[in-house]
């Protein structure tokens, strides 16, 4: 068995093969100019178009494909759309037609969740209800995930950041501190050099959070002469406290159930360690937490073998 997955998110081109047990994946970050905080969709689409042939060539495969999976939109809701996913859809469609194999389309978000489950050996959770957090540059959402005959899993939004997303906060503050975009890895490293333990009361309303304040407070700390290390740790603790409060409130409303954290921000050492200790939560390994095509390849496998 062999299943190909393709994901062309806003900042990573990714290709993966899944044989029913193991994943081989190749990824390439999109290039963002020094000092800039992101990419236009037209530039992201162009870079994906250039990257895909290079990554597919690096995948060592000479057998027969059973199916192709691709992420074609950010989330599984009406109106969810980003042009950058067109590059992946075009490539996946060509491969599917040329090899006469089925093509299965899913959302980038579903791919994140499935990759996280695979990473912690919990794919069986697709048969029951669980909570999944998708925390990245474009999304800070809590989802009630339920089994679905057609889509494998169906994610219902039950909590979110009402303004700034966690990944945006990390990148904006990181750029302010002179780090390279995307700033997650560098911010993680320098935060570990801070000895301050900040006491933070997050802005929470029900199961939603507000993260706009963290950027403003970080800017004030920068003007007041706080070190880069202390500012980095403040931002990460603020995000941790927000996600922790959201999780507690979700459990109060929906009851305790397994909770899985996915998305690039969830590869952060501080946030990951504290949430895992507090909630016995599941976390994808870093290579399956950041944007990747593994979950999309797994989706194609599940469509062929579960339904």
**Which regions contain 5 or more consecutive residues with pLDDT less than 50?**
none
Based on helices, strands and strand pairing, what is the structural class?
alpha/beta
- Distance from N terminus to C terminus (CA atoms, Å) equals 16 Å
Percentage of β-strand residues: 15-25%
Mean pLDDT, as a whole number? 94
Number of helices: 10
Q: What's a quick, concise take on this entry?
A:
It is built from ten helices and twelve strands. With 307 residues, the chain is of the alpha/beta class.
What does this entry look like structurally?
The chain is about 40% helix and about 20% strand. The chain has helices spanning about 40-60, 85-100, 110-120, 165-175, 185-190, 210-225, 230-255, 270-280, 285-290, 295-305; strands spanning about 5-10, 10-20, 25-30, 65-75, 105, 130-135, 140-150, 150-160, 205, 210, 260, 280-285. The strands form three sheets. Strands 3-2-1-4-5 form a five-stranded mixed beta sheet, sandwiched between helices. The chain has a five-stranded mixed beta sheet with strand order 8-7-6-11-12, with helices on both faces. β11, α8 (about 270-280) and β12 (about 280-285) form a beta-alpha-beta unit. α3 packs across α10, α4 (about 165-175) packs antiparallel against α7 and α6 packs antiparallel against α7. The chain is globular and about 60 Å long.
């Amino acid at each position: 068995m062999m299943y190909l997955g393709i994901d062309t998110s806003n900042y990573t081109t990714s290709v993966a093969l899944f044989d029913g047990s193991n994943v081989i994946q190749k990824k390439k970050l999109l290039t963002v100019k020094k000092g800039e905080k992101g990419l236009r969709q037209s530039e992201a689409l162009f870079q994906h178009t250039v990257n895909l042939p290079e990554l597919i060539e690096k995948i060592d495969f000479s057998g027969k494909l059973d199916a192709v999976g691709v992420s074609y939109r950010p989330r599984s809701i009406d109106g969810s759309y980003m042009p950058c996913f067109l590059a992946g859809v075009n490539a996946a469609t060509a491969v599917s037609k040329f090899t006469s194999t089925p093509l299965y389309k899913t959302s980038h978000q579903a791919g994140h969740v499935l990759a996280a489950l695979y990473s912690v050996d919990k794919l069986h959770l697709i048969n029951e209800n669980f909570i999944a957090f998708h925390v990245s540059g474009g999304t800070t959402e809590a989802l009630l995930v339920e089994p679905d005959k057609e889509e494998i899993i169906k994610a219902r939004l039950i909590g979110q950041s009402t303004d700034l997303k966690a990944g945006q906060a990390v990148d904006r503050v990181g750029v302010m501190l002179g780090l390279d975009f995307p700033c997650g890895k560098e911010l993680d490293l320098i935060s570990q050099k801070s000895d301050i333990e900040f006491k933070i009361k997050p802005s929470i309303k029900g199961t939603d959070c507000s993260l706009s304040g963290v950027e403003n407070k970080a800017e004030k700390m920068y003007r007041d002469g706080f070190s880069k290390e202390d500012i980095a740790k403040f931002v990460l603790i603020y995000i941790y406290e927000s996600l922790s409060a959201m999780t507690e409130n979700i459990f109060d409303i929906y009851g305790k159930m397994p909770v899985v954290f996915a998305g690039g921000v969830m590869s952060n050492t501080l946030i990951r360690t504290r949430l895992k200790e507090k909630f016995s939560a599941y976390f994808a390994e870093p290579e399956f937490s950041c944007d990747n095509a593994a979950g999309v390849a797994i989706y194609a496998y599940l469509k062929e073998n579960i339904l």
